Amino acid sequence: MGLGLAFSVSAQSISSFHVAGISGISVLRSGNQITLNVGSAPTLQLGSNSYAVTEVFGVWALDDNGDMSATNGDQSGWKKSINFAGTGGIAGWKTNPNDGLINGSQVFTYGSLTGSVESFGYHIRVSGNLPGGGNTAFFRPVPEPGTLAALGAGVALMGRSRRRNR
């Protein structure tokens, strides 16, 4: 399984963090672009509960330590959203409630995006209420545990191979 094909994700609803699974949504960052793909019936699986995703209404890059800089403008009905108050910051796009993306693709392009981008992701709205209240969450894709294990094994083999070749 390649990176980016399946994700486990971290979600936040109100003030509680959860590990969740999501299907039907993918996000990929390449240089100054974030590509968002949303299927016709995306779902969020949180423990034994399943929620229908009703829209993706935000896309962003996140800086944890204050070394990222970004410029962007409104794009295809999505408003730019940049906040670098304090350490770190966020730069991306958001749309009005019930105007988000469902069953389609959108490419978001920054005028510039420099420094370290520690993560990128998206905001969703779901049917029903999530644990802790509310019906919205944000996601930062991370590789599945199996993908992480494969990456770790590959790194270990590379290190082993380098030691043998010395």
Describe the structure.
The structure is a single chain. The chain is mainly β and 166 residues long. It contains one helix and eleven strands, in the order E-E-E-E-E-E-E-E-E-E-E-H. A hairpin with a 2-residue loop joins strand 1 and strand 2 (16-30). The longest helix is centred in the C-terminal third of the chain and has 20 residues, at 145-164.
Distance between the termini: 32 Å
Largest β-sheet summary: 6 strands, antiparallel, barrel
Evaluate the radius of gyration. Answer: 17 Å
Low-confidence stretches: 1-16, 144-163
**Element pattern in H and E:** EEEEEEEEEEEH
Helix content: 10-25%
The percent range for strand residues is over 45%
Total count of domains = 1
Specify the structural class. mainly beta
- Sum up the overall morphology in one term: globular
Question: What's this, in brief?
Answer:
The protein has one helix spanning 145-164; strands at residues 7-13, 16-30, 33-46, 49-63, 69-71, 79-83, 89-94, 104-109, 112-114, 119-126, 136-143. The chain has 166 residues and is mostly beta strands. The radius of gyration is 17 Å and the shape is globular.
How would you summarize the topology of this molecule?
Blueprint lengths: L6 E7 L2 E15 L2 E14 L2 E15 L5 E3 L7 E5 L5 E6 L9 E6 L2 E3 L4 E8 L9 E8 L1 H20 L2
Antiparallel strand pairs: 1-2, 1-11, 2-3, 3-4, 3-8, 4-7, 4-10, 5-9, 6-7, 10-11
